[in-house]
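Here is the promised in-class demo. Please do not try to memorize the tokens; focus on the logic of going from shape to residues.
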């Protein structure tokens, strides 16, 4: 009698594994999207996350890049689990067709996500020059999905699969370069520079800024950080120029990333006052209290822009 061929274990478990991996990616990107839209700061074990997540490359068509990442991971989860719910005898024939279609979609999606993640790794290494735990983790997840999509099932036409992968990779790469064309042109300049402060300073703001400078208080920030912009707007143009401001973004004006790394800055802005670190945007009253300021507190700019 002919011995029945054993189905490789990876064929049986690849879809649940891919669903689990994609679900992790969906949860992480959903968190980053919520943080970005809510104007908060993501919790990250390394200081480079805030630089990366607030860089010009972190926004696409005015929306957080993490939102598109969430949609990609969510779609991969759906493709992976869709055939698993068809178990009845009547559904077996349809399940076989669905497995073929979703198998191809998993491969195409995995290829697209892997190529895009590879481009993001290039940006981290050569353009932004900062490490981001979330970005690196996403690249690992994308590569895992790509590999599982290939080895997780038997393919009848390898040449056609290879051709499809090449086409998807080219389309994704060309589309990515097109979307980021303006950002790449800007980053190619010598320096991206600084943002423009539109508010003016009152006597109290100037006095507080001078006091902070005298006690050697430092403000660590990045020109791409909206909270840093708000912080400087609170002081006003004249007073902000008096601050001991340290730019942490490698593309910013007078960047001092080495000092930011040495100080183990976890988010922006971070104030260093009398040897203590205070993370997050502060009101002028809070800064006056933390620094022991005894002067005029009749601050002109009491609200952040847009509040």
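The designed amino acids, position by position:
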């Amino acid at each position: 009698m002919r011995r029945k061929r054993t189905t490789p274990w990876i064929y049986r478990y690849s879809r649940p594994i891919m669903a689990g991996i994609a679900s992790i990616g969906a949860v992480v990107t959903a968190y980053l999207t919520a943080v970005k839209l809510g104007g908060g700061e993501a919790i990250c074990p390394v200081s480079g996350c805030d630089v990366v997540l607030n860089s010009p490359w972190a926004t696409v068509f005015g929306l957080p890049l993490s939102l598109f990442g969430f949609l990609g991971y969510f779609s991969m989860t759906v493709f992976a689990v869709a055939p698993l719910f068809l178990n009845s005898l009547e559904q077996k024939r349809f399940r076989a067709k669905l497995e073929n279609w979703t198998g191809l979609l998993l491969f195409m999606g995995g290829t697209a996500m892997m190529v895009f993640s590879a481009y993001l790794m290039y940006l981290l290494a050569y353009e932004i020059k900062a490490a981001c735990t979330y970005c690196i983790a996403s690249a690992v997840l994308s590569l895992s999905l790509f590999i599982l999509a290939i080895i997780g099932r038997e393919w009848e036409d390898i040449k056609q699969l290879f051709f499809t992968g090449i086409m998807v990779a080219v389309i994704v790469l060309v589309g990515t370069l097109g979307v980021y064309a303006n950002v790449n042109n800007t980053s190619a300049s010598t320096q991206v520079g600084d943002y423009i402060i539109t508010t003016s300073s009152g006597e109290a703001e100037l006095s507080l800024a001078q006091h902070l400078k005298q006690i050697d208080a430092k403000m660590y920030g990045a020109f791409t950080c909206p909270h840093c912009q708000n912080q400087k707007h609170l002081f006003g143009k004249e007073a902000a120029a008096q601050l001991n401001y340290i730019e942490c973004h490698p593309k910013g004006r007078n960047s001092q990333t080495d000092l930011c790394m040495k100080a183990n800055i976890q988010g922006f802005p971070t104030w260093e006052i009398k040897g203590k670190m205070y993370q997050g945007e502060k009101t002028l009253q809070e800064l006056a209290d933390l620094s022991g300021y005894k002067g005029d507190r009749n601050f002109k700019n009491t609200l952040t822009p847009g509040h």
